[in-house]
Design brief:
Helix content of chain B: over 70%
Oligomer: heterodimer
CATH architecture of chain A: Up-down Bundle
Order of helices and strands of chain A: HHHHHHHHHHHHHHHHHHHHH
CATH class of chain A: Mainly Alpha
Number of domains of chain B: 1
Number of strands of chain B: 2
Distance between the termini of chain B: 47 Å
Number of strands of chain A: 0
Shape of chain A: globular
Radius of gyration of chain A: 22 Å
Helix content of chain A: over 70%
CATH topology of chain A: Sodium/glucose cotransporter
CATH superfamily of chain A: Sodium/glucose cotransporter
Shape of chain B: elongated
Number of domains of chain A: 1
Number of helices of chain A: 21
Strand content of chain A: under 5%
């Protein structure tokens, strides 16, 4: 099925990303432009950009692949990715914006006045960012291979180079416009083929696949053990992990105030809900038209190959080109967002004392190179799990570290520096150990397979409990004063807050 | 006594812009500087917002977290169909999304109401 149409479409997306990115350079001048677009982004544009950034390889390809292989239980992934934003809205959106933090380490320092918690947070942001970048690069590799037969590393090279150059030259201001554009491209690229595929399915007399409980909840179809535990663990990781993803928080800083932050989330929820109606369609129809992909490494490519299997001639070619363009938009936008965040933290925190690196912009550019090079190297050597599952591991680490830090930090005045630090170390250590075990030696079977493959159900409660117990044992008067000041700033509406620079 | 009776003058709060804004700054300063009064006021707002978040969060937990439990406890439901499509697919593929959005919309309204009540309280006192 090698055709030049998809390649042209990918070249067009890459070219458009470059063009908009380079145009943005003209207006990016200060470090603030690079990191947060100087807060001059309108809410609609910001919501589209958040949607564009959030819908990654996992959403565009991974969900359909999982549904194809394992059935209806996998719909918890898109539901969880959406509800994650709702949880973020009710627990952290407005206070987080009012905190004035634009990275998670900033929040840690603002809330606890602690350099140590800040440093621990910086390291975790970088690790979570790399873990999330990995499946984006792997996704690019398998996409290019499925469409052209190119070696797997080529797709990863394309994404790494494009993202590295756009981020290093344009920073946040240019990628905001790029990402808003990419949300609408992704929606169109998945919705149009999905609608046509459903029409073709009606033409064929609506055949249904019912074998072995694939269509039934909790059936454990596809040799999944402990489906109930796994379902709840996915729910916990995605519901609570979204708020702790590095590229999600940065976007809140670009809202003018706490209320705008809430309204932006409302718009984002609408955009995500519409998008997530479509990927499962590919998974379900793939079960009927491309059953040979189910349960294999190639399941992630079902979105890419299904249109050309169902439709012949120019229509198949055109739709293949469209989904290829959408897939690359997904890799590029998510990878850019993550790369900006990781590079920002690297240049602000971890390279801070390297005076010889010169000004902020130069440090940011060096940070960008490191941010993308490490996951690129990992993509070449790591074994490949399903894209959505790898992404969910990043969610699990975020849910086990930054979720307790944010939720307790915002709502519980008795959180202490030591409590937060202990929670980050215990929760992050446990979740990262599970991730490393799975990526290096997995997948496992039996109880270990379930507990390590979806660790959130035990690592998140563990992290919360550690924070609370250690905080209760270490609270003192100076911590109370820090908390009171932080609470006034986090919860006080802007109208009554003293003006801050 | 040829003095005229003195005109009586009503002594009232001076309704000038300067006087009002000076009073406003007073309570604002409590909130911003973290005096005992300010801390208590912020605590009441925080608790109101937390109560709201917990109501929405527990509703979410029961409604969405209950779905797998429902399927676990009622096996025939797993294969039940509505209009040719299985219940699980309809529920998780379509129905949850508008419900999520409506929950969010309701939350935003309630949270903003809490905040405007707080602002009124500060401005009035």
């Amino acid at each position: 099925m090698t055709s030049w149409w998809p390649v042209l479409a990918i070249v067009a997306v890459v070219g458009a990303t470059f063009a908009i990115g380079l145009f943005g350079v003209r207006v990016s001048r200060t470090t603030s432009d690079f990191l947060v677009a100087s807060r001059s982004v309108s809410p609609t544009l910001n919501a589209s950009a958040i949607g564009g950034e959030y819908l990654s390889a996992a959403s565009f390809l991974g969900i359909a692949g999982l549904v194809l292989s394992y059935g209806v239980d996998m719909l918890w992934f898109p539901v969880g990715y959406t509800v994650g934003y709702l949880v973020l809205l009710i627990l952290v959106a407005a206070p987080l914006r009012r905190s004035g933090a634009y990275t998670l380490p900033d929040f840690a320092e603002m809330r606890l006045r602690s350099r140590r918690v800040r440093s621990a947070s910086s390291v975790l942001v970088v690790l979570i960012g790399w873990l999330y970048l990995l499946p984006q690069l792997q996704g690019a590799g398998i996409t290019l291979r499925a469409l052209t037969g190119a070696p797997v590393w080529l797709g990863a090279v394309v994404v790494a180079v494009v993202v590295g150059i756009t981020v290093a030259t344009g920073g946040m201001r240019s990628i905001t416009v790029v990402q808003a554009f990419q949300y609408w491209l992704k929606l169109f690229a998945i919705a149009l083929p999905a609608v046509l595929l459903v029409a073709a399915w009606y033409r064929d007399g609506t055949p249904v696949f019912t074998e072995g409980g694939w269509g039934d909840p909790l059936s454990g179809y596809g040799e999944r053990e402990y489906p109930l535990y796994t379902t709840y663990s996915i729910v916990l990781a995605t519901f609570l992990g979204t708020m702790g993803l590095p590229h999600v928080l940065v976007r809140f800083y670009t809202n003018p105030d706490g209320r705008a932050a809430r309204r932006t989330v409302l718009a984002v929820l609408a955009l995500l809900s519409v998008f997530y109606l479509f990927p499962p369609v590919f998974g379900a129809l793939g079960r009927i038209y491309t059953p040979e992909l189910a349960g294999t490494d190639a399941a992630d490519t079902v979105v890419l190959v299904l249109p050309s299997v169902v439709f012949d001639g120019w229509l198949g070619d055109a739709l293949s080109a469209l989904v290829a363009a959408g897939a690359f938009a997904a890799f590029l936008s998510t990878a850019s967002g993550l790369c900006v965040s990781v590079a920002g933290v690297l240049s602000q925190d971890l390279l801070r004392h390297e005076g010889r690196l010169g000004d902020g912009v130069r440090r940011f550019r060096l940070g960008t190179a490191i941010a993308i090079a490490v996951p690129f190297a990992l993509a070449l050597v790591a074994g490949r799990a399903n894209l959505a599952q790898t992404v969910t591991l990043a969610f699990a680490v975020a849910a086990s570290t930054f979720c307790p830090l944010l939720v307790l930090g915002i709502w519980w005045p008795r959180l202490t520096e030591k409590g937060a630090l202990a929670g980050l170390l215990v929760g992050g250590g446990a979740a990262l150990a599970a991730v490393v075990a799975v990526l290096a030696a997995g997948p496992f079977t039996g109880v270990a397979g379930a507990l390590l493959g979806q660790p959130a159900a035990w690592t998140v409660p563990l992290a919360f409990a550690t924070c609370v117990v250690v905080s209760l044992r270490t609270g003192d008067r100076s911590q109370r004063l820090v908390s009171d000041a932080a609470m006034a700033r986090l919860h006080g509406p802007e109208e009554i807050q003293a003006r801050r620079a | 006594m040829d003095e005229k009776p003195q005109r009586r003058v009503a002594v009232t709060h001076p309704r000038t812009a300067a006087a009002r804004s000076a009073a406003k700054r007073g309570v604002r300063r409590d909130v911003n500087d973290g005096t005992a009064l300010g801390v208590t006021m912020i605590r009441s707002l925080r608790r109101a917002q937390l109560r709201l978040a917990l109501i929405v969060g527990s509703g979410l937990l029961v409604a969405l977290g209950g779905i797998p439990l429902l399927f676990l406890l009622d096996p025939p439901l797993r294969e039940a169909r509505v209009g040719g499509l299985a219940v699980g697919w309809i529920l998780l593929g379509v129905v949850v999304f508008p419900l999520i959005w409506l929950t969010a919309w309701w939350y935003v309204r309630a949270a903003e109401r809490n905040e405007s009540q707080f602002v009124d309280l500060v401005e009035r006192s």
